[in-house]
Amino acid sequence: MNNWFKFVCFTLLAIFNAKINAQDKIIVGEKESVFSKILNENREIWIHLPKTYNDNSINPAKYPVIYLLDGEINFEYYAGMTDFLSKPPYADIPECIVVGIKNTERTRDLTPTKSQKKSPVNPNITLFSDSGGSENFTKFIQEELKPFIHKKYRAQDYSVLVGHSFGGLFAIHTFLTHPEAFNAYVANDPSLWWDNKVLISKTKDYLEKNKKFPAKKSLYVTQADNEEQQKNWDSDMTQAIDEFRTIVEKNGTLNYKHRFFEGEVHGTVSYPGNYEALKFVFKGFRTNIKEFAKNPGLLEEEYKRFSDTVGAEFIPSEPYLNVIIKFMKSNGFKESETYFMNVKNKLYPKTK
Amino acid sequence: MNNWFKFVCFTLLAIFNAKINAQDKIIVGEKESVFSKILNENREIWIHLPKTYNDNSINPAKYPVIYLLDGEINFEYYAGMTDFLSKPPYADIPECIVVGIKNTERTRDLTPTKSQKKSPVNPNITLFSDSGGSENFTKFIQEELKPFIHKKYRAQDYSVLVGHSFGGLFAIHTFLTHPEAFNAYVANDPSLWWDNKVLISKTKDYLEKNKKFPAKKSLYVTQADNEEQQKNWDSDMTQAIDEFRTIVEKNGTLNYKHRFFEGEVHGTVSYPGNYEALKFVFKGFRTNIKEFAKNPGLLEEEYKRFSDTVGAEFIPSEPYLNVIIKFMKSNGFKESETYFMNVKNKLYPKTK
Lengths: 352, 352
Fold this sequence. Notes:
The structure is a homodimer of 352-residue chains.
Chain A: H1 2-23, E1 25-36, E2 41-48, E3 63-68, H2 71-85, E4 97-101, H3 106-110, E5 117-118, E6 126-127, H4 134-152, E7 155-164, H5 166-177, E8 184-188, H6 194-210, E9 218-224, H7 227-230, H8 236-250, E10 255-261, H9 270-281, H10 298-310, H11 318-330, H12 334-347
Helix pairs in contact in A: 2-9, 5-6, 6-8, 11-12
């Protein structure tokens, strides 16, 4: 029994240690695995939940979802960025769930057509022989990944797709072929040079057929300072993005912005680009707490206006209402305090 | 015995679960606690180690250290950002250890003088009654935190101090009073209005006494688009930063940059500011792998030039040398491959 006792003590200690260790880590996400029948493989997905997601003092809320390509490269700063930008009282964006998608066969998944190329460095090597699978990959996201996310997490019916390079190409292809799939699309330095600029032709075709882009959708395109790149084989990168810009800017129905980033190269443009893109996509979301003291009705007006603009319902979050109520209380705005207590009771009737 | 057996099985399962759980998390840092005799309190410190820190396939290396104030607000995106910017082959910065310092008494620690103020909203409340402790806080960092970091982690003798608002005030105060403490200082929208612009006077005093700023030190100051702020009680924010800029720009010895961020407010400027600041501080660090094929000697030349500029020794990391060697090998640059194998053997003799 003595040995058993030692063993049990040891295991208890080990559990205790493991728990202590977990508490001592700064965790920005969790890994999930989704088996895709469409792609016939397991896909690793990294999930970031907002700070208030598991806060027991508030009612369970739903959150917009950002689908982030090249998860293994972008997830960590991106997750931190969404928390930083959604901090009350001056949140530029709502709190979001971030779904980072890790690559398996990047070229296969992110390119819209099969297009091979001899390596400019070694002509014996054929590049992109497995290209052309993006329609399948969109199908995976729409029919397998999104249902998984909505089943497992409290996801709002508002989503953003974010990609870079081939991922940007994929975002624009998805926008052209399935514009209803996401509310907003972000394409950082997209590889629109792909396959003799096949997406430029597709964009023209789209507009010929549909006359205009769907309303209430956003597209943000960043362009790197590719002076260095010009010397390389993909020098038509810049030219293709410019061409796309000219076509889209002529069509005013889309909430579109193109931004050139001076001093950023193809490999770095995503970091500032993703930040500016989120501020663009959620433009109008930010409200000014100080204005509500004398005009409390403004809060709901502004959320209604923003919801109309983006074509999806956004309501003030319970944590934000708590911050507003606290502000009114501590500054002696009695009437406004009562007003916002009523708003809170209306929006979150089962207040804990 | 049956119950004992069940219990043991259960605990084993729990350990197994805890381990599995830890593997399933995206972890960007670990929490440490340092007891400060100087401040007479425990301080929570968040540590981010670079991706290669525990890579057993390379020799243990040392890394520059970034001390980040307001750790609880900035740590997560900042940690991800340093990994993003230091990715080979086109790394803009070296891999870094990030040390996030969590606040206890923020005003006490970050303000250089005791200066009270009546609240503009409620005159019965006195603000900043515990201000004036920044000299003590610098002492804590220099005499307690840095030795702790150097004892526990492989820290290079190169460090950066990063702060925002009162933290920016603290960074500039530390630069003026202990310029030798850090190699580079980053001040995001610093509260130079503090105590009738006491740091403006201190800057003038410093230059009167020392004639010029120390060489090989960097200071990056960001300024938010504080139009909104102008309406508030700290409207002298902008004016004080402008005044500081004028004084410092007249003195050419400092590697100084001031940047105004259009559209960024006081609360958001740190995100783009910290990115631009790191690119400024490590300007010249980035090398172009393609140029080394025909001119392999360039690598060491460029590292020597960068080291001279910043006054600290930087050498090509082993992972970067591995990337270079692989590039030379796969593109058939035999001579350069041998050259870089020799560089690697020289710099990392105990190659595994």
